[in-house]
Amino acid sequence: MSQDTINQRLKFLVEALAPSGRAFSELIGESPTNTHNYTSKRNTEPRAAYIQKVVSHFKNVDAHWLLTGEGEPFKEGTAPSQNQTNISGKKNAVNVASGNGTATTNNITLADCEKERDSYKAQLEKAQREVELLTGQVETQKSLIESKQQLLDFLRGGLNRPN
Asked: Are 102 and 121 within one domain?
């Protein structure tokens, strides 16, 4: 990928350092809209404050390369770790690497996992209650059909009776 413009270099960093533009934005404390605009629109150059957040958060990014395109994207010996996932209770804490050749970072806190788990539990409980209600409705419907059938049989039998 050619990295002639600062926008292209920023897009390279987003792809190398985060699973998505939104995650990259959250890491540096910026709006996902800004990141999207800076990485997809050639005529929207990032503000100095945005660039400062990038190089302040990602200490291994070479600021000179980001600004000029000269040199390497990462400081010598500090290329991004491979497939890192934060499994601590704090954001941006020590990561566990798995080295299959792709560079992605997922900073997921324990609180985030617990919140997502609780959300899934609530959805499951709601679905189970709905299944119980629907099962009850089906049983009621079967009972009504059976009663109607008995009534029809009774009425048919009464009409065929000799007077």
From this structure: no
